[in-house]
């Protein structure tokens, strides 16, 4: 048995393996998946010398704890949280050396929702359709972590530009989502667009990797007929029968039968991944595509 691996001591509420996603298979009904906060996962990989697409751990709210079988450099980014090695405080947002057999504890998020844990060499689980990502909707990729599970690690780069720390945006106190008109915008009344632009929305506790659900004014439909299933994209704002918008995230279904009132700018979706339940939310209608923010 290889010692280039780590054992899961505490899996947390939901911790899964993610990379940059499973692209190019939507026509087969396979979602893209991948890290919800791509800038945070890329930064974690940069800090330990990995390429941007190396597989990392994505934790949800309560963090996780792991024990590497050999010494490894790690970095924790995304939602700020306490980090410790064998009970001793360690840095968040910077490279940390974890000795063989020591326990790396990634604590509960202080702000935000999802933290990212990169290991030098990346997590070397078997790729499925070109990605190591866990997909909660289709079940592709490795299962979410469980206590006692053992995951393999890859070989770290011998030489890389070392970074002690790097700036990164914090989780939003208020989530602002810029939204282009959707393909079914004409299915909604002018009152619906007024509600979107001025209504008081909050992030629902029912949100997950599939979609960010909202609490707030219901959107009034102008067309009440049935809609045949049609293709869905990351960031699509779908409106189910209760009228409350749902913003599709990385594990979203590739087709859907509810009308899409708009599509959130890709540059704003990382912040959506870090918006905790109860976070105030504003939709800002725009008419032109928004340039995607580059990861640090």
From TrEMBL:
SUPFAM superfamilies in the record:
Cyclophilin-like
The organism's superkingdom is given as Bacteria
Q: Does the keyword Transit peptide apply?
A: no
Quick check: keyword Disulfide bond in the entry?
Answer: no
The record's listing under Pfam families reads: CT_A_B
- InterPro entries, from UniProt? CT_A_B, Cyclophilin-like_dom_sf, PxpC
Span of domain Carboxyltransferase: 27-296
Give the keywords, sorted. Answer: ATP-binding, Hydrolase, Nucleotide-binding
Name the chain's protein. Biotin-dependent carboxyltransferase family protein
Q: Which organism is it from?
A: Streptomyces noboritoensis
